[in-house]
C-alpha cells in the first residue's frame, strides 16, 4: 500500500527513477503504459503497493551496464519488503520480459517468514524466486529443475542445490544485488532480436523504449484468506456486463489463470466455489474498485489483485483484451453510461473490425486446421461441402445442403452457383476479380488467389499444399476475413446486428460529412443496402440481370442478330424484364437516388464456352452448330477488358443502350405513380473521349423525350459518366460539361493505371506486397500516389468546367477506410461500395470527420 513517506527526496528529484505518487513526473511515453496506469490508480487512492518507476532512459542505461542509484530506489521500500519487477512498454500490447516476483527472498527471510506465515508458504515464495531468477537472470535452462518433484522446504533445498551446481556459485543473498541483476537482465532481454521482432510485428517502432516498475510484493500467501487473481467486468467475446476472472488462494501473480479447477470463480457460480462466498467483503471491495477504475480510466480494465488476510490490494490494471464485437459493445456502453462522449465511442471502434460483426466468424477460440491462405476477398466464414460447378451448387442448395463453390476462377455464368453456395474459393483472381466483387455484393465469404492449392476442377479434386486431397462432398471452411482455407468445421460465432450496433451507427451518421451509397444489382442487394441505411445506389451493374436462364437465351439471340432491326426486335423482349428490374429497385429505394450503369461487359461473356453449350444454343436458335462456333470465334478478343465493351458497345451497337434507357424511364414513371418521385441516374461506362458521351447522350435524351411524349408525362433524370480510364481523368474538363456527375470506377482505373490485370494480379500480389513493391494491394486500398493523383486531376478538371458536377467513387475502394479518406480529402460527394461494407464506410467516414474537426 502506498505510504506517504519523507525519505524519497533523492528518488523524487530524479524523474528517471521515481516513486509513483499522484504528481510524480510519469508519462506513458517516458515510463511506459503500466507506470502511467499505476499512477492513475494511485491518484484514485486505490490500495496500490508502493511502486518505483524506471524511465526508458534509465532502463536503456542499465542495459548498457550502468548501475542505477540503488540506495535511492531501495530507500523507498521497507528493508524487509519483497519486491517484484514488471515491464512497462509504451503500449502494453508491445509486451516485454516476464515479471520476476519475490526479489529479496534469501535464507534469512525464509526463516523469518516461516515464523510469520508458515514454512510451506515461505518455501513457496523462495522457490518461485530461485527458479525464475535461475531462468531469467542466470539464463539456465528451465529443465534444470525438471527432476525436482518435492515441494515445500525440500523442493527449495533441491532447487538451491541445482542452482549452485549449474552456476558454481551460491544463490545471491543480497536484495540489492538480486534487484540489479533482475533489472539488467530484463533491460537486456528487451534489446534481444526476438523481442524486437515480436514487438515490431505488433506495430512498435524500432527504437521503442522499455520502462520497468519495481513494486512492493504483497505475497498472496500466508495466514488468513490470502491469494491472488484477476477480475474484469465484461465478457471478452461479447462485451456484455459479466464479472469474469479467477482467484486462487495461497497464490501469486497470474497463477489463478493457469490453475484450472482449483481456482475459484469470482461471483457465485453453480459450477463451483466463489470468492464471493469465501471472502464476501473482499469481493465487494474488489467490485467497487473495478467499477471506479472503469469510470475514471474510461475503459474496461482487468484488475490484477492480491488478497492479504482478507484485505484487497490492487497490483495493476490492464486494458481488457477484446474481440471486435466486445470492443463495440464496450465503447457503446461507456458512452451510454456517460463515461465517454458518443464521438469518442465512434472513434474507438476499428471500422475494419466491423466486418467481424456483420458476418459469421470462426470462433476466436476454435482450433484452425489451416490448409492454405489466399486473398480474403469477402469477409465472414462458412462451412460446407465442396462442389466444383455452378450446377452442382444449385443442386446442393436444392437439397438444402450448404456448399462451397470451388472454381479456378468465376465468370458471369457462375453467378447463379454463387447465389446457391455459402462460400466461394478460387485459385486465381484478386480483390476486384469477378468472384471477389460478386462475393462481397452477396455478403458471401470468398477467398481468391489460393494459388498454393491445386485446382483440378475437371477431375473434381482439390489438393492442399501438404498433400491432403479433397473431393466433391468433403467439408471445408472458408474464412474470407483472414483468407484461410480450413479443413473441417470449426466452431462459429454468429453475426450480430443488435441495438448496440444501431446505436453506434446512429452516432456515426450524426458526424459524417460524405454520403455513403451501395453498389446493388438485384432487389436483394438493394434491400440489404436499405437495411444498412445506404443513401442510395451508387452503382447498379445491369449486366448481372441478364444471366437469369430465361434471359440468357434472349440475350444470346440478340447477340446473334445480324441487323440493327433484328437486334431491336429481340431487345423488345428484354425490355419488360429490365423495366421490372428497375421498377423494383426504385420501389425498394423509395425515392433515394439509384444510379444505373448501362451495359458494360464484352458481349462474348454471354456466349457458351463449352461444345455442349454451343450445341444447345444452336438448337435453341435453330442454327447449324458450325454457325454458332464461327460467331463465337469471331467475337473472341485478345484482350477483352480493353476491347469491345462499355461505351464502345453503346456507340457501335446502340440498340442495347436504347432499350435500357427506355426501361429505366418507363420504370421511373411507373414507380413514381404510387411512391416517392424517382430521379434516375444513368451512367455511361468506360468513357475515354468526349465524343462518346455526346453520341450516347443524344440518343438517351431522345429516348427520354419519346417516353415522356408517349406517356404524356415529364420526368427528370441525370446522365453521368463513369471515369475509369486514365484518359477520362485527364480530359475531365471536356467531358464534365455534358454530365451531371462523374463517378470514378477505381477498379478499372487501377487496372489501367498500373497496367495490372484485376483478374490475374492475385498470382503475384502477395509477393509484391511482401517485398515492398506495393505497400498494399492497390485493388484493395486506393493507391494514393498514382491512381489518387488521377482522381485529383479528374476532380479538379471536372469541377473547373462544371462546378456543380457530383463527384463520387463506385469502385470497390468505396468501402475501404483508407481510400474513403482520399475521397473525402478531395471533396467527393459520396462513395459507393458493396452493401455489406456500407456500415464500415459509414463508421470510417464519421471517424474522418471527427478527427478533422479535432485537427487530427
Ligand atoms: C470499376 O471499374 O471500378 C467499376 C466499379 O466497375 P466494374 O467493377 O464493374 O468494372
Ligand atoms: Mg469498371
TrEMBL record:
Recorded coiled-coil stretches: none
The keyword Transferase belongs to this UniProt entry's keyword annotation: yes
Domain PEP-utilising enzyme C-terminal: 502-848
Cofactors named for this entry: Mg(2+)
Top-level EC class as recorded in UniProt: transferase
Annotated Gene3D superfamilies: ATP-grasp fold, A domain, ATP-grasp fold, B domain, Phosphoenolpyruvate-binding domains, Phosphohistidine domain, Pyruvate Phosphate Dikinase, domain 2
InterPro entries the UniProt entry points to: ATP_grasp_subdomain_1, PEP-util_enz_mobile_dom, PEP_util_C, Phosphohistidine_dom_sf, Pyruvate_phosphate_dikinase, Pyrv/PenolPyrv_kinase-like_dom, Pyrv_kinase-like_dom_sf
Molecular function as annotated in GO: pyruvate, phosphate dikinase activity
Function: Catalyzes the reversible phosphorylation of pyruvate and phosphate.
Protein name per its UniProtKB record: Pyruvate, phosphate dikinase
Amino acid at each position: 500500500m502506498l505510504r506517504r513517506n519523507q525519505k524519497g527526496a533523492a528518488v523524487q528529484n530524479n524523474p528517471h527513477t521515481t516513486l509513483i505518487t499522484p504528481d510524480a513526473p510519469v508519462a506513458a511515453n517516458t515510463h511506459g503504459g503500466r507506470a502511467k496506469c499505476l499512477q492513475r490508480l494511485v491518484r484514485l487512492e486505490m490500495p496500490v503497493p508502493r511502486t518505483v518507476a524506471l524511465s526508458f532512459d534509465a532502463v536503456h542505461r542499465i542495459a548498457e551496464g550502468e548501475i542505477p542509484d540503488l540506495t535511492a530506489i531501495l530507500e523507498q521500500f521497507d528493508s524487509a519488503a519483497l519486491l517484484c519487477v514488471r515491464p512497462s512498454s509504451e503500449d502494453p500490447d508491445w509486451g516485454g520480459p516476464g515479471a520476476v516476483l519475490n526479489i529479496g527472498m534469501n535464507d534469512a527471510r525464509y526463516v523469518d517468514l516461516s515464523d510469520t506465515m508458515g514454512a510451506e508458504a515461505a518455501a513457496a515464495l523462495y522457490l518461485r524466486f530461485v527458479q525464475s531468477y535461475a531462468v531469467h537472470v542466470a539464463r539456465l535452462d528451465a529443465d534444470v529443475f525438471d527432476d525436482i518433484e518435492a515441494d515445500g522446504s525440500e523442493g527449495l533445498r533441491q532447487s538451491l542445490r541445482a542452482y549452485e551446481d549449474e552456476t558454481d556459485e551460491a544463490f545471491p543473498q543480497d536484495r540489492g544485488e538480486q534487484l540489479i541483476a533482475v533489472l539488467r537482465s530484463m533491460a537486456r532481454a528487451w534489446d534481444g532480436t526476438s523481442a524486437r521482432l515480436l514487438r515490431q510485428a505488433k506495430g512498435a517502432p524500432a527504437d521503442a523504449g522499455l520502462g520497468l516498475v519495481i513494486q512492493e510484493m504483497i505475497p498472496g500467501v500466508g495466514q488468513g484468506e490470502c491469494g491472488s487473481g484477476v477480475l474484469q467486468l465484461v465478457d471478452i467475446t461479447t462485451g456484455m456486463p459479466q464479472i469474469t476472472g479467477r482467484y486462487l488462494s495461497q497464490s501469486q501473480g497470474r497463477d489463478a489463470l493457469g490453475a484450472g479447477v482449483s481456482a475459484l470463480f469470482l461471483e457465485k457460480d453453480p459450477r463451483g466455489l466463489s470468492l464471493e462466498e469465501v471472502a464476501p467483503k473482499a469481493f465487494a471491495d474488489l467490485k467497487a474498485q473495478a467499477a471506479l477504475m472503469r469510470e475514471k480510466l474510461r475503459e474496461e480494465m482487468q484488475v490484477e489483485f492480491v488478497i492479504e488476510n482478507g484485505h484487497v490490494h490492487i497490483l495493476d490494471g490492464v486494458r481488457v483484451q477484446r474481440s471486435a464485437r466486445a470492443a463495440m459493445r464496450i465503447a457503446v456502453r461507456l458512452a451510454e453510461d456517460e463515461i465517454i462522449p458518443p464521438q469518442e465511442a465512434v472513434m474507438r471502434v476499428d471500422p475494419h473490425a466491423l466486418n467481424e460483426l456483420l458476418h459469421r466468424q470462426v470462433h476466436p477460440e476454435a482450433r484452425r486446421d489451416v490448409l492454405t491462405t489466399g486473398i480474403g476477398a469477402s469477409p465472414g466464414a462458412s462451412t460446407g461441402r465442396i462442389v466444383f460447378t455452378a450446377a452442382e451448387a444449385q443442386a446442393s442448395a436444392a437439397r438444402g445442403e450448404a456448399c462451397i463453390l470451388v472454381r479456378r476462377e468465376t465468370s458471369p455464368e457462375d453467378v447463379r452457383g454463387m447465389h446457391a453456395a455459402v462460400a466461394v474459393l478460387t485459385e486465381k483472381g484478386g480483390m476486384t476479380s469477378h468472384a471477389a466483387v460478386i462475393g462481397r455484393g452477396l455478403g458471401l465469404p470468398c477467398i481468391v488467389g489460393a494459388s498454393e492449392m491445386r485446382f483440378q476442377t475437371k477431375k473434381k479434386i482439390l489438393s492442399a499444399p501438404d498433400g491432403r486431397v479433397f473431393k466433391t462432398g468433403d467439408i471445408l471452411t472458408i474464412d474470407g476475413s483472414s483468407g484461410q482455407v480450413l479443413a473441417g468445421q470449426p466452431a462459429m460465432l454468429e453475426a450480430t446486428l443488435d441495438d448496440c450496433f444501431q446505436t453506434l451507427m446512429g452516432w456515426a451518421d450524426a458526424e459524417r460529412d460524405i454520403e455513403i451509397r451501395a453498389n446493388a444489382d438485384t432487389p436483394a442487394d438493394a434491400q440489404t443496402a436499405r437495411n444498412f441505411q445506404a443513401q442510395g445506389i451508387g452503382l447498379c451493374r445491369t449486366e448481372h440481370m441478364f444471366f437469369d436462364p430465361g434471359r440468357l437465351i434472349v440475350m444470346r439471340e440478340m447477340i446473334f442478330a445480324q441487323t440493327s432491326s433484328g437486334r431491336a426486335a429481340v431487345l423488345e423482349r428484354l425490355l419488360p424484364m429490365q423495366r421490372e428490374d428497375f421498377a423494383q429497385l426504385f420501389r425498394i429505394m423509395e425515392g433515394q437516388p439509384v444510379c444505373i450503369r448501362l451495359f458494360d461487359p464484352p458481349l462474348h461473356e454471354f456466349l457458351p464456352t463449352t461444345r455442349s453449350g454451343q450445341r444447345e444454343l444452336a438448337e435453341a436458335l435453330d442454327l447449324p452448330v458450325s454457325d454458332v462456333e464461327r460467331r463465337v470465334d469471331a467475337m473472341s478478343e485478345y484482350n477483352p477488358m480493353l476491347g469491345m465493351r462499355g461505351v464502345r458497345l453503346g456507340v457501335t451497337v446502340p440498340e442495347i443502350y436504347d432499350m435500357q434507357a427506355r426501361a429505366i424511364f418507363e420504370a421511373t414513371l411507373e414507380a413514381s405513380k404510387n411512391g416517392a418521385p424517382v430521379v434516375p441516374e444513368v451512367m455511361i461506362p468506360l468513357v475515354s473521349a468526349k465524343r462518346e458521351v455526346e453520341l450516347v447522350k443524344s440518343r438517351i435524351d431522345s429516348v427520354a423525350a419519346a417516353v415522356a411524349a408517349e406517356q404524356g408525362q415529364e420526368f427528370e433524370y441525370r446522365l453521368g459518366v463513369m471515369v475509369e480510364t486514365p484518359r477520362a481523368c485527364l480530359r475531365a474538363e471536356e467531358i464534365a460539361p455534358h454530365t451531371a456527375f462523374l463517378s470514378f470506377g477505381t477498379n478499372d482505373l487501377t487496372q489501367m493505371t498500373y497496367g495490372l490485370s484485376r483478374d490475374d494480379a492475385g498470382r503475384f500480389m502477395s509477393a509484391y506486397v511482401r517485398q515492398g513493391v506495393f505497400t498494399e494491394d492497390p485493388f484493395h486500398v486506393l493507391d494514393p500516389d498514382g491512381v489518387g493523383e488521377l482522381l485529383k486531376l479528374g476532380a479538379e478538371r471536372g469541377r473547373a468546367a462544371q462546378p456543380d458536377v457530383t463527384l463520387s467513387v463506385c469502385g470497390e475502394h468505396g468501402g475501404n477506410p483508407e481510400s474513403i479518406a482520399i475521397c473525402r480529402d478531395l471533396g467527393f460527394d459520396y462513395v459507393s461500395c458493396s452493401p455489406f461494407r456500407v456500415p464500415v464506410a459509414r463508421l470510417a467516414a464519421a471517424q474522418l470527420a471527427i478527427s478533422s474537426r479535432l485537427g487530427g
